[in-house]
């Protein structure tokens, strides 16, 4: 017998929920029960406990994704599982289509070297702070970047301090003396040796990263490879990635050729020449470059966060490597795995059409403003009117909040968010911050995000004409 699911909802969402389920034509049986509240998003576990008198023979109960409270305790009390569905009603089809199939993003194979490019100019505490930040964002190796003609008297001390905190360390320099000092201090990797400086590898235990003796000279790289193989040494090779219009395409071909010649070698790609030297959002650049790495079996990258526009490069690379590993493992394109690299746009920014919003607005019987977006613009409505615009300034004169500073401030914030979402093609949900993928670090909540919290972010507003004092919440959502 197919599973029987009980959907709990509110008055405003009931009709939409029934229509979505009818269109979905699910294999399971279902019952839709309106719990006697207007806004489904304001449902709580205690409210369900008080109002739900019959589970209709269901095998499990599905409640709105923003439902607050302890659902485990409620499940025990009702004797059947109570689970949260998606936060947005129109995400139900995807919710059921992907249930139990979310790719595992805990796994990856690519190692991220994160370079502190100005290490000689930082004191020891500054180096350690930067290293901790990089590790938090996903870096596996901290690369100490040496600067030309710049003394680095505390190089050895920096290597030892990083090692004492459990970091893997590489030293990156064009000066052979820096590489030798770093290796003797205990660095794990040295960037970069060529056939002319292989003698350093004989002096230290650090794993060398090999580059061509002259730019693009793969023959010299092959000779260095052969020499270290003869010594029985581990090593990594880097054919060098060039910036766009300065050999970028040719350098990609070099990586392909090195992999063709040496199917078993460990290879590193320095992605900073693209992320730092291209004024485009770096999340997409990282995704493409790490896609190349995934196809060619390149399992190390060197990245930097020097330019302000590249300040999330490590975090982006960390997520990209997880997405691409999952995609390759599942033998699928890297789509519908995780949305964290899509900072500006979203897959389904407008869950409701203008016609559906019109229909919903006719069900509203209270003075609280709802704000929704559709391809046509930003819509704000309550029982007294429905207004649409693409510029929030056009809406303000129609809202009647000129003498209510707190309410005006709240609506200004929400309408600004809605306009940004509409312009970019992002998902907007009233009273919730816009999502920016891995670009914005969301602070960990002080409490369970599904525990109870105050119902809204508005200040107390003056009574709406014809309504009792205090019946003015502006944050209720369908």
From TrEMBL:
Location of the region described as Disordered in the Swiss-Prot/TrEMBL record: 447-478
| InterPro entries reported for this sequence | Dihydropteroate_synth-like_sf, DUF6513, Pterin-binding_dom
What residues does the Pterin-binding domain cover?
93-325
This protein is called Dihydropteroate synthase-like protein
Q: Name the source organism.
A: Candidatus Methylocalor cossyra
């Amino acid at each position: 017998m197919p599973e029987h699911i009980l959907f709990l909802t509110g008055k405003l969402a009931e009709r939409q929920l029934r229509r979505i389920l009818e269109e979905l034509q699910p294999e399971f049986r279902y019952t839709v029960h309106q719990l006697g509240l207007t806004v489904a998003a304001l449902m709580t576990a205690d409210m369900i406990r008080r109002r739900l008198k019959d589970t209709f023979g269901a095998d499990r109960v599905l409640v709105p994704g923003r439902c607050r409270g302890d659902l485990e305790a409620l499940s025990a009390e009702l004797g059947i599982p109570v689970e949260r569905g998606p936060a947005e009603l129109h995400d139900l089809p995807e919710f059921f289509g992907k249930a139990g199939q979310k790719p595992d993003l805990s796994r990856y194979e690519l190692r991220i070297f994160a370079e502190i490019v100005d290490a000689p100019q930082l004191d020891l505490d500054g180096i350690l702070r930067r290293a901790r930040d990089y590790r938090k964002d996903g870096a596996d190796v901290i690369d100490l970047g040496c600067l030309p003609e710049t003394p680095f008297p505390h190089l050895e001390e920096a290597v030892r301090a990083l090692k004492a905190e459990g970091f893997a360390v590489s030293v990156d320099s064009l000066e052979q003396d820096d590489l030798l000092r770093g290796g003797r201090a205990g660095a794990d990797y040295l960037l970069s040796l060529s056939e002319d400086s292989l003698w350093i590898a004989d002096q230290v235990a650090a794993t060398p990263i090999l580059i061509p003796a002259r730019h693009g000279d793969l023959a010299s790289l092959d000779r260095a490879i052969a020499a270290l193989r003869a010594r029985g040494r581990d090593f990594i090779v880097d054919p060098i990635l060039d910036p766009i219009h300065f050999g970028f395409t040719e350098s990609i071909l070099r990586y392909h050729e090195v992999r063709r010649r040496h199917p078993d070698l460990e290879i590193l790609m320095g992605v900073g020449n693209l992320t730092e030297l291209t004024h485009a959002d770096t999340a997409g650049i990282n995704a493409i470059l790490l896609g190349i790495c995934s196809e060619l079996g390149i399992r190390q990258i060197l990245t930097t966060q020097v330019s302000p526009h590249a300040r999330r490069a490590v975090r982006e690379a960390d997520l990209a490597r997880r997405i691409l590993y999952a995609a390759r493992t599942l033998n699928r394109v890297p789509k519908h795995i995780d949305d964290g690299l899509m900072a500006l746009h979203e897959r389904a920014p407008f869950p409701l059409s203008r016609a559906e919003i019109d229909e919903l607005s006719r069900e509203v019987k209270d003075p609280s403003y709802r704000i929704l977006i559709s391809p046509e613009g930003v819509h704000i409505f309550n029982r007294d009117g429905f207004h649409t615009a693409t510029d929030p300034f056009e809406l303000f004169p129609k809202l009647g909040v000129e003498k209510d500073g707190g309410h005006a401030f709240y609506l200004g914030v929400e309408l600004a968010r809605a306009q940004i979402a509409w312009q970019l093609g992002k998902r907007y949900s009233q009273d919730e911050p816009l999502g920016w993928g891995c670009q914005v670090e969301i602070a960990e909540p002080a409490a369970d995000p599904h525990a109870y919290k105050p119902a809204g972010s508005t200040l107390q507003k003056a009574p709406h004409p014809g309504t009792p004092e205090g019946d003015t919440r502006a944050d209720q959502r369908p």
